[in-house]
Amino acid sequence: MPINKVGVLGCGLMGSGIAQVSAQASFATMVVEANDELLQRGLGNLRKMLEGLVARGKMEAKAKDDVLGRIVGTTRLDDLKDCDLVVEAITENQPLKNETFAKLDRICPPHAILASNTSSCNVTAMAAATRRPGQVLGLHFFNPVPLMKLVEVVRTILTDETAVRTATDWVRAVGKTPVQTKDATAFIVNRLLVPYLLDAIRVYESGLATLEDIDQAMKLGCGYPMGPFTLLDLVGLDTTMYVAEVMFDEFREPRYAPPPLLKRMVMAGHLGRKSGQGFYKY
Ligand SMILES: NC(=O)c1ccc[n+]([C@@H]2O[C@H](COP(=O)([O-])OP(=O)(O)OC[C@H]3O[C@@H](n4cnc5c(N)ncnc54)[C@H](O)[C@@H]3O)[C@@H](O)[C@H]2O)c1
Fold first, then answer.
1. Ligand 1 centroid to residue 89 C-alpha, Å
2. Does one domain contain both 169 and 229?
3. Distance between CA 146 and CA 148 in Å, rounded?
4. If both were cysteines, with which of 50, 98, 176, 229 could 151 make a disulfide (CB 3.0 to 4.6 Å apart)?
5. pLDDT in tens, 143-164
6. Is residue 26 flagged as an active site residue?
7. 205 and 110, same structural domain?
8. Best mutation site among 91, 176, 247 for ligand 1, i.e. most ligand atoms within 8 A of its Cβ?
Protein backbone atom coordinates (compact mmCIF):
# COMPACT_ATOMS: atom_id res chain seq x y z
CA MET A 1 0.00 0.00 0.00
CA PRO A 2 1.34 3.48 -0.79
CA ILE A 3 1.85 5.90 2.09
CA ASN A 4 -0.52 8.85 1.77
CA LYS A 5 -1.44 9.80 5.29
CA VAL A 6 1.10 9.86 8.11
CA GLY A 7 0.44 10.02 11.84
CA VAL A 8 3.02 11.37 14.28
CA LEU A 9 2.51 10.55 17.93
CA GLY A 10 4.09 13.09 20.29
CA CYS A 11 4.90 16.66 19.26
CA GLY A 12 7.97 17.25 21.40
CA LEU A 13 11.51 17.85 20.19
CA MET A 14 11.52 14.91 17.76
CA GLY A 15 7.82 14.56 16.88
CA SER A 16 7.50 18.19 15.76
CA GLY A 17 10.55 17.74 13.48
CA ILE A 18 9.21 14.47 12.05
CA ALA A 19 5.81 16.09 11.39
CA GLN A 20 7.58 19.01 9.71
CA VAL A 21 9.66 16.90 7.29
CA SER A 22 6.65 14.69 6.54
CA ALA A 23 4.42 17.67 5.66
CA GLN A 24 7.28 19.35 3.73
CA ALA A 25 7.41 16.21 1.60
CA SER A 26 3.67 16.68 0.83
CA PHE A 27 2.28 13.98 3.13
CA ALA A 28 -1.00 14.73 4.92
CA THR A 29 0.24 14.59 8.52
CA MET A 30 -1.80 14.11 11.68
CA VAL A 31 -0.03 14.98 14.95
CA VAL A 32 -1.23 13.66 18.30
CA GLU A 33 -0.23 15.13 21.69
CA ALA A 34 -1.20 14.23 25.23
CA ASN A 35 -3.18 17.44 25.82
CA ASP A 36 -4.11 20.67 24.07
CA GLU A 37 -1.49 22.84 25.79
CA LEU A 38 1.36 20.53 24.73
CA LEU A 39 -0.12 20.25 21.24
CA GLN A 40 -0.23 24.04 20.83
CA ARG A 41 3.32 24.33 22.18
CA GLY A 42 4.62 21.65 19.80
CA LEU A 43 2.84 23.06 16.76
CA GLY A 44 4.01 26.56 17.78
CA ASN A 45 7.64 25.35 17.73
CA LEU A 46 7.07 23.75 14.35
CA ARG A 47 5.60 27.00 12.99
CA LYS A 48 8.60 28.97 14.34
CA MET A 49 11.01 26.58 12.57
CA LEU A 50 9.21 27.17 9.26
CA GLU A 51 9.04 30.95 9.82
CA GLY A 52 12.80 30.86 10.42
CA LEU A 53 13.28 29.18 7.03
CA VAL A 54 11.15 31.88 5.38
CA ALA A 55 13.07 34.65 7.19
CA ARG A 56 16.39 33.20 5.97
CA GLY A 57 15.08 32.99 2.39
CA LYS A 58 15.15 29.17 2.40
CA MET A 59 11.39 28.77 1.93
CA GLU A 60 8.64 30.81 0.26
CA ALA A 61 5.90 32.13 2.58
CA LYS A 62 3.33 30.32 0.41
CA ALA A 63 5.22 27.00 0.79
CA LYS A 64 5.25 27.48 4.58
CA ASP A 65 1.46 27.97 4.55
CA ASP A 66 1.08 24.87 2.39
CA VAL A 67 3.20 22.80 4.81
CA LEU A 68 1.18 24.05 7.80
CA GLY A 69 -2.03 23.32 5.86
CA ARG A 70 -1.02 19.67 5.57
CA ILE A 71 -0.61 19.29 9.35
CA VAL A 72 -3.61 18.58 11.56
CA GLY A 73 -3.18 18.50 15.34
CA THR A 74 -5.32 16.44 17.69
CA THR A 75 -5.33 15.01 21.20
CA ARG A 76 -7.37 11.93 20.17
CA LEU A 77 -5.44 8.80 19.27
CA ASP A 78 -8.54 7.61 17.38
CA ASP A 79 -7.90 10.32 14.78
CA LEU A 80 -5.05 8.12 13.45
CA LYS A 81 -7.65 5.65 12.17
CA ASP A 82 -6.94 6.23 8.47
CA CYS A 83 -3.14 6.64 8.59
CA ASP A 84 -0.93 4.42 6.41
CA LEU A 85 2.13 5.01 8.61
CA VAL A 86 2.37 6.14 12.24
CA VAL A 87 5.69 7.31 13.69
CA GLU A 88 5.64 7.20 17.48
CA ALA A 89 7.84 9.83 19.17
CA ILE A 90 6.50 9.90 22.73
CA THR A 91 8.44 9.78 25.99
CA GLU A 92 11.19 7.12 26.18
CA ASN A 93 9.44 4.58 28.41
CA GLN A 94 9.06 0.91 27.46
CA PRO A 95 5.74 0.07 29.20
CA LEU A 96 4.18 3.30 27.86
CA LYS A 97 5.37 2.51 24.33
CA ASN A 98 4.13 -1.12 24.49
CA GLU A 99 0.73 0.04 25.69
CA THR A 100 0.61 2.75 23.00
CA PHE A 101 1.44 0.24 20.24
CA ALA A 102 -1.36 -2.06 21.45
CA LYS A 103 -3.76 0.91 21.19
CA LEU A 104 -2.47 1.97 17.77
CA ASP A 105 -2.92 -1.59 16.57
CA ARG A 106 -6.61 -1.47 17.52
CA ILE A 107 -7.13 1.95 15.89
CA CYS A 108 -5.09 1.91 12.66
CA PRO A 109 -6.13 0.12 9.45
CA PRO A 110 -4.73 -3.41 9.03
CA HIS A 111 -2.24 -2.36 6.32
CA ALA A 112 -0.72 0.49 8.40
CA ILE A 113 2.94 0.39 9.42
CA LEU A 114 3.65 1.32 13.04
CA ALA A 115 7.12 2.80 13.61
CA SER A 116 8.92 3.93 16.75
CA ASN A 117 11.52 6.68 16.92
CA THR A 118 12.92 5.15 20.12
CA SER A 119 16.65 5.49 20.85
CA SER A 120 16.94 2.74 23.45
CA CYS A 121 13.64 0.92 23.99
CA ASN A 122 13.03 -2.55 22.66
CA VAL A 123 11.17 -2.46 19.31
CA THR A 124 10.47 -6.21 19.47
CA ALA A 125 8.47 -5.71 22.70
CA MET A 126 6.38 -3.02 20.96
CA ALA A 127 5.81 -5.35 17.98
CA ALA A 128 4.80 -8.20 20.29
CA ALA A 129 2.16 -5.93 21.88
CA THR A 130 0.33 -5.77 18.52
CA ARG A 131 -1.45 -8.26 16.26
CA ARG A 132 0.69 -7.05 13.33
CA PRO A 133 4.29 -7.61 14.49
CA GLY A 134 5.41 -7.88 10.85
CA GLN A 135 4.45 -4.23 10.30
CA VAL A 136 6.25 -2.81 13.33
CA LEU A 137 9.76 -1.36 13.01
CA GLY A 138 11.98 1.45 14.23
CA LEU A 139 12.59 4.71 12.34
CA HIS A 140 15.32 6.41 14.36
CA PHE A 141 15.63 10.07 13.35
CA PHE A 142 18.36 12.35 14.70
CA ASN A 143 18.08 15.71 16.42
CA PRO A 144 17.44 18.31 14.97
CA VAL A 145 15.25 16.32 12.57
CA PRO A 146 14.92 18.96 9.82
CA LEU A 147 18.73 19.22 9.55
CA MET A 148 20.04 15.73 10.27
CA LYS A 149 20.08 13.53 7.18
CA LEU A 150 20.24 10.07 8.77
CA VAL A 151 17.43 7.67 9.70
CA GLU A 152 18.22 4.23 11.08
CA VAL A 153 15.59 1.77 9.83
CA VAL A 154 15.35 -0.86 12.56
CA ARG A 155 13.94 -4.31 11.86
CA THR A 156 13.06 -6.85 14.53
CA ILE A 157 13.15 -10.61 14.01
CA LEU A 158 9.39 -10.28 13.36
CA THR A 159 9.43 -7.47 10.75
CA ASP A 160 8.29 -8.23 7.19
CA GLU A 161 10.51 -7.30 4.25
CA THR A 162 7.64 -5.38 2.58
CA ALA A 163 7.17 -3.17 5.63
CA VAL A 164 10.93 -2.42 5.68
CA ARG A 165 10.84 -1.52 1.97
CA THR A 166 7.78 0.72 2.30
CA ALA A 167 9.16 2.51 5.37
CA THR A 168 12.59 2.92 3.73
CA ASP A 169 10.97 4.46 0.63
CA TRP A 170 9.08 6.89 2.88
CA VAL A 171 12.34 7.86 4.63
CA ARG A 172 13.82 8.70 1.20
CA ALA A 173 10.63 10.55 0.25
CA VAL A 174 11.04 12.87 3.27
CA GLY A 175 14.57 13.68 2.10
CA LYS A 176 16.53 11.52 4.54
CA THR A 177 19.18 8.86 4.01
CA PRO A 178 18.16 5.46 5.41
CA VAL A 179 20.56 2.85 6.81
CA GLN A 180 19.35 -0.63 7.71
CA THR A 181 19.94 -2.09 11.16
CA LYS A 182 18.52 -4.54 13.68
CA ASP A 183 16.69 -4.22 16.96
CA ALA A 184 19.64 -4.40 19.35
CA THR A 185 19.93 -1.61 21.93
CA ALA A 186 21.46 1.60 20.54
CA PHE A 187 21.47 0.50 16.86
CA ILE A 188 24.52 1.67 14.84
CA VAL A 189 25.26 5.27 15.80
CA ASN A 190 24.83 5.06 19.58
CA ARG A 191 26.43 1.61 19.73
CA LEU A 192 29.66 3.22 18.50
CA LEU A 193 29.24 6.75 19.84
CA VAL A 194 28.31 6.03 23.47
CA PRO A 195 31.40 3.89 24.35
CA TYR A 196 33.58 6.57 22.69
CA LEU A 197 32.04 9.29 24.89
CA LEU A 198 32.38 7.10 28.01
CA ASP A 199 36.02 6.40 27.12
CA ALA A 200 36.67 10.12 26.79
CA ILE A 201 35.40 10.58 30.37
CA ARG A 202 37.62 7.69 31.58
CA VAL A 203 40.65 9.21 29.86
CA TYR A 204 39.91 12.55 31.55
CA GLU A 205 39.38 10.80 34.94
CA SER A 206 42.79 9.12 34.52
CA GLY A 207 44.45 12.53 34.35
CA LEU A 208 45.93 11.98 30.90
CA ALA A 209 44.96 15.42 29.59
CA THR A 210 42.68 18.41 30.13
CA LEU A 211 39.11 18.58 28.79
CA GLU A 212 40.13 21.28 26.34
CA ASP A 213 43.09 19.30 25.04
CA ILE A 214 41.08 16.09 24.62
CA ASP A 215 38.41 18.04 22.68
CA GLN A 216 41.04 19.79 20.57
CA ALA A 217 42.86 16.50 19.89
CA MET A 218 39.74 14.71 18.62
CA LYS A 219 38.67 17.71 16.53
CA LEU A 220 41.99 18.27 14.80
CA GLY A 221 43.32 14.72 14.94
CA CYS A 222 40.19 12.96 13.71
CA GLY A 223 38.42 15.75 11.84
CA TYR A 224 35.36 15.48 14.11
CA PRO A 225 33.18 18.61 14.10
CA MET A 226 33.41 18.84 17.91
CA GLY A 227 35.29 17.13 20.73
CA PRO A 228 33.68 14.53 23.05
CA PHE A 229 33.09 16.88 26.00
CA THR A 230 31.46 19.56 23.84
CA LEU A 231 29.25 16.81 22.40
CA LEU A 232 28.47 15.33 25.84
CA ASP A 233 27.35 18.75 27.07
CA LEU A 234 25.17 19.16 23.97
CA VAL A 235 23.52 15.72 24.20
CA GLY A 236 23.02 16.03 27.97
CA LEU A 237 24.88 14.05 30.63
CA ASP A 238 21.65 12.55 32.02
CA THR A 239 20.61 11.33 28.57
CA THR A 240 24.05 9.82 27.95
CA MET A 241 24.03 8.11 31.34
CA TYR A 242 20.53 6.73 30.74
CA VAL A 243 21.47 5.26 27.34
CA ALA A 244 24.74 3.86 28.77
CA GLU A 245 22.83 2.14 31.57
CA VAL A 246 20.36 0.59 29.11
CA MET A 247 23.29 -0.59 26.94
CA PHE A 248 25.13 -2.00 29.96
CA ASP A 249 21.97 -3.78 31.03
CA GLU A 250 21.58 -5.29 27.55
CA PHE A 251 25.18 -6.30 26.77
CA ARG A 252 26.78 -6.57 30.26
CA GLU A 253 30.08 -5.28 28.90
CA PRO A 254 32.16 -2.90 31.10
CA ARG A 255 32.73 -0.51 28.20
CA TYR A 256 29.05 0.51 28.33
CA ALA A 257 29.05 1.13 32.10
CA PRO A 258 28.76 4.83 33.01
CA PRO A 259 32.03 5.97 34.65
CA PRO A 260 31.88 7.27 38.25
CA LEU A 261 32.50 10.90 37.21
CA LEU A 262 29.51 10.87 34.83
CA LYS A 263 27.23 9.52 37.58
CA ARG A 264 28.41 12.14 40.03
CA MET A 265 27.98 15.00 37.58
CA VAL A 266 24.39 13.91 36.96
CA MET A 267 23.79 13.66 40.76
CA ALA A 268 25.19 17.18 41.10
CA GLY A 269 22.78 18.47 38.45
CA HIS A 270 25.57 19.25 35.99
CA LEU A 271 23.70 18.03 32.93
CA GLY A 272 25.40 20.02 30.19
CA ARG A 273 24.18 23.01 28.19
CA LYS A 274 20.58 22.62 29.35
CA SER A 275 21.53 23.16 33.02
CA GLY A 276 24.17 25.82 32.34
CA GLN A 277 27.00 23.58 33.54
CA GLY A 278 28.38 20.30 32.29
CA PHE A 279 32.03 19.62 31.56
CA TYR A 280 32.07 23.31 30.55
CA LYS A 281 30.19 26.34 31.96
CA TYR A 282 27.56 28.07 29.77
N1 LIG B 1 15.93 13.97 21.82
C2 LIG B 1 16.71 13.31 20.97
O3 LIG B 1 17.84 13.73 20.65
C4 LIG B 1 16.23 12.03 20.35
C5 LIG B 1 16.89 11.54 19.22
C6 LIG B 1 16.41 10.37 18.61
C7 LIG B 1 15.31 9.72 19.14
N8 LIG B 1 14.69 10.21 20.26
C9 LIG B 1 13.52 9.48 20.76
O10 LIG B 1 12.34 10.18 20.36
C11 LIG B 1 11.32 10.00 21.33
C12 LIG B 1 10.82 11.36 21.77
O13 LIG B 1 11.90 12.09 22.30
P14 LIG B 1 11.86 13.69 22.44
O15 LIG B 1 13.23 14.11 22.70
O16 LIG B 1 11.09 14.28 21.30
O17 LIG B 1 11.00 13.83 23.77
P18 LIG B 1 10.07 15.04 24.22
O19 LIG B 1 9.87 14.90 25.68
O20 LIG B 1 10.55 16.34 23.66
O21 LIG B 1 8.67 14.72 23.47
C22 LIG B 1 7.84 13.65 23.79
C23 LIG B 1 6.40 14.15 23.65
O24 LIG B 1 5.52 13.04 23.70
C25 LIG B 1 4.34 13.49 24.34
N26 LIG B 1 3.61 12.32 24.83
C27 LIG B 1 3.91 11.51 25.88
N28 LIG B 1 2.98 10.54 25.99
C29 LIG B 1 2.09 10.73 24.99
C30 LIG B 1 0.91 10.05 24.57
N31 LIG B 1 0.49 8.97 25.21
N32 LIG B 1 0.24 10.54 23.49
C33 LIG B 1 0.68 11.61 22.83
N34 LIG B 1 1.79 12.30 23.18
C35 LIG B 1 2.47 11.87 24.24
C36 LIG B 1 4.83 14.38 25.47
O37 LIG B 1 3.80 15.23 25.89
C38 LIG B 1 5.99 15.12 24.77
O39 LIG B 1 5.58 16.33 24.20
C40 LIG B 1 11.93 9.15 22.44
O41 LIG B 1 11.60 7.80 22.22
C42 LIG B 1 13.44 9.37 22.26
O43 LIG B 1 14.20 8.29 22.69
C44 LIG B 1 15.11 11.35 20.86
1. 5
2. no
3. 6
4. 176
5. 999 999 999 999 999 999 999 9
6. no
7. no
8. 91
